[in-house]
Each structure stands twice: as structure tokens, then as C-alpha cells.
Specification:
19 strands; 8-stranded mixed sheet; 318 residues; alpha+beta; globular
């Protein structure tokens, strides 16, 4: 378990001190009592990514040093879980804003009275297909996809409903040379059409869903992103996106591109690259869309489930 506190001091790399790739404790600078840096306890999951963070109260404004320490841990572990956070909507929006402002959430109407919070929910008796059950990186079809996502557990079923994450740095590192040679230099074609176009999964024929999803022809637009790319903050190479929002590769016809996408998703979601996250009520989870794929799982029929979600805007380099 590592402990982090305070702002960056001498010997920093980025926003935290490192030795052997692991963040170390940082001595806090004098601050007011209200904004005094908190000491974070970070416990890695022991899986391919993910860590549990305690020693911080996210219902209070955070000191710059605490924010820097959380960001360093986020970049290192890719998924952070903060248990025991009885956050309201103001708290969730304030926390999100520390890490780059709000991303644009298309196709899903925000909760009443808020512009940046959407409800990820499912009623106990709902029969519509599970939302977001396939691997994806949130909104990868945008020109500037969000850097991260924050998800706050409000009503959590007693069974099921885990979220799985897959580390795409690890997936690239372990990829066989022959497969890697086939993807070098490829531009992936991203689109929301399979999900959010009027003919898509969440389109006109999607009935009985409690989430407020609004399909639109805007989902037919396409964007190109490198399939192998450097993380904009850490510089580490990884895979970005997967079949679903990726509908092909520029320069490859479907007879070649679609079988390659299928082969890749089998690789990208392998067990050894995964972290299986178990939810708790009042738990906030933040993850890095630039490093990961994720997907929802079911297993909680007969139970309500409600989480509030924000997205962190693409990193501006500051």
C-alpha cells in the first residue's frame, strides 16, 4: 500500500514523486485547515489494473496537493475506487472538474437540474438488454474523446452488477509480434451508429428502458483515431478502442477489417488484462478511457441499480 499526500515538491515527475515507477509520500505545504492536504492510502487490486483509495473525503474541497496525488495514482493504476463517499451532485461535479472539466455526453439526457450528470440505471423488473455490456472506451467516436469517467454508486444490488476493465497497455505489451505487425499504423474508424443511430441498439426499437437515451442521426458520423497510440500524459503506448465503436480501419475493406476487429477484441479482453470491480453503495470510481476498455455485467435481476456518471474532458496539456 502506498501513501500520497501534498503537492509536488523537489524530485517530482509530473505531479508526484516516483521511485521505481511507484508514487511516494509527498510532504504537504502549509495550507488552510479547510483545504489541508489529506493522506491517501492506495491499495492495488492485485489484478491487471485498479486500486482502492482511502484517507480522503470527497464531500469536501480538495487541496491542490491531494488532487495531484490522486491524478498520479489514476495514471499509475488506471482505475481508482473511493469507498464510503456519501457524495451529492455538487460533490460529484466538483470532483470531476479537478481533472480537466466536463466532457460532452451525447445521446443520454442528464438528470433534472444538471448539465453534466447522467443516470446509469436499471429497474428491478426491466427486460431491455443490459446497457453497455460490450467492451468499449467511452465516447471514442468523438473528435476529442473524454480522458476519463467518474461513476458514483447510489443504489447497488446485493449481487451482480460488477464492472470489468481491461488494461490496453498490457494488451499491447503482450501482443504477439505477428498480430502487432498487422495493426501498426492503422487508423481506426469510430462511430456511434451501432448504438445510438435510430436503427441502432438504443434506437427506435429499444423499448422498456429506464435510462433516458435519445438516438439521433448524429451517430452516423465517423472519426479516425490511431489504433496504437501514446497516452497523452504518460507517453505509454496502448491500444485505443475496440469493435463496437470501431466499425473498421481506414484503407481496409470490410472483408479484411471486420475479421481483424473480431480477432483483436478476443485478444483485448483476455482475462490476464482484466480487473473485475465489485461495487459498494457510496463508492466513487474514476477510470482512464485512454488506457482501458470496460463493460457492464448483469446478474442482478429483481434489483434496482442506480449510478450517477460524469465524464472528464480530453486533456488539454496543462
Amino acid at each position: 500500500m502506498a501513501e500520497l499526500s501534498g503537492p509536488c515538491g523537489p524530485g517530482c515527475i509530473g505531479s508526484a514523486s516516483f521511485r521505481g515507477g511507484l508514487p511516494l509520500a509527498i510532504d504537504p505545504m502549509p495550507q488552510s485547515a479547510q483545504h489541508r492536504a489529506m493522506t491517501l492510502a492506495i491499495t492495488p487490486s492485485g489484478q491487471a489494473c485498479g486500486a482502492r483509495v482511502t484517507g480522503v473525503d470527497l464531500t469536501r474541497p480538495l487541496a491542490p496537493g491531494t488532487i495531484a496525488a490522486i491524478r498520479a495514482a489514476w495514471l499509475d493504476h488506471h482505475v481508482l475506487a473511493f469507498p464510503g463517499q456519501r457524495m451529492n451532485a455538487d460533490d460529484l461535479e466538483r470532483f470531476t472538474s479537478y481533472f480537466g472539466g466536463f466532457g460532452d455526453d451525447p445521446f443520454i439526457r442528464p438528470i433534472p437540474g444538471r448539465d453534466h450528470i447522467i443516470a446509469v440505471q436499471r429497474k428491478a423488473d426491466e427486460t431491455a438488454p443490459l446497457f453497455a455490456e460490450n467492451w468499449h472506451s467511452d465516447w471514442s467516436f468523438q473528435a476529442r474523446p473524454p480522458a476519463g469517467t467518474c461513476l458514483l454508486g447510489i443504489t447497488i444490488p446485493p449481487v451482480g452488477g460488477n464492472t470489468e476493465f481491461s488494461n490496453q497497455h498490457a494488451a499491447l505489451d503482450a501482443m504477439p509480434a505477428q498480430l502487432r505487425a498487422r495493426i501498426e499504423g492503422l487508423q481506426a474508424v469510430h462511430s456511434a451508429r451501432n448504438g445510438y443511430a435510430p436503427t441502432g441498439m438504443y434506437g427506435a426499437n429499444d423499448k422498456g428502458r429506464s435510462m433516458d437515451i435519445r438516438s439521433d442521426d448524429e451517430a452516423l458520423e465517423i472519426r479516425h483515431h490511431p489504433f496504437v497510440r501514446d497516452h497523452p500524459e504518460t507517453g505509454r503506448e496502448g491500444l485505443f478502442g475496440c469493435a463496437g465503436y470501431i466499425i473498421g480501419f481506414d484503407g481496409l475493406d470490410d472483408s479484411e477489417g471486420l475479421p481483424l476487429l473480431y480477432e483483436l477484441i478476443q485478444w483485448q479482453g483476455r482475462e490476464e488484462f482484466r480487473y473485475n470491480h465489485e461495487w459498494e453503495p457510496d463508492m466513487l470510481v474514476m477510470w482512464d478511457n485512454r488506457s482501458l476498455l470496460h463493460r457492464a455485467t448483469g446478474g442482478y435481476d429483481g434489483h434496482d441499480r442506480l449510478l450517477h456518471r460524469t465524464t472528464i474532458a480530453a486533456w488539454g496539456g496543462a
